[in-house]
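Dear colleague,

Thank you for sharing your sequence with our group. We've completed the structure prediction you requested, and as agreed, I am returning the results in plain text so they can be pasted directly into your records. Please verify that the sequence below matches your submission; if there's any discrepancy, let me know and we will rerun it promptly.
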Amino acid sequence: MANIKSAKKRILVTEKRTARNKSIRSAVKTSIKKVDAAIAANDKAAAEAALKAAIGEISRAASKGVYHKNTAARKVSRLTVAVNKIA
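Please find the predicted C-alpha cells below.
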C-alpha cells in the first residue's frame, strides 16, 4: 500500500476511473451484441434500431475518452456495413 498522500489519491482515482471505463465498455459491448443478434436473425428493422442505439453508445464512449475516436469510427463503420448487407 502507498504511504504518500498523492499516491493514495492516485490509487483511489484510478479505481474510480477504471470502474467507470469498465461500465461504459460493457454497455458498448452489449449494444454491439444486440446488433449482431438482429443481423443473425436477418431482421433488418431491428438491426437498424439496434444500430442507432449502438452508435450512440459508441460515440458517447469516444467523447468520454474510453475509446479513441478512430476506434469508435471503425466500430461504427463495421456495424453499419454489416447491417447494410442484410437483404
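Summary note from our side: The chain has three helices and no strands.

Kind regards,
the structure core
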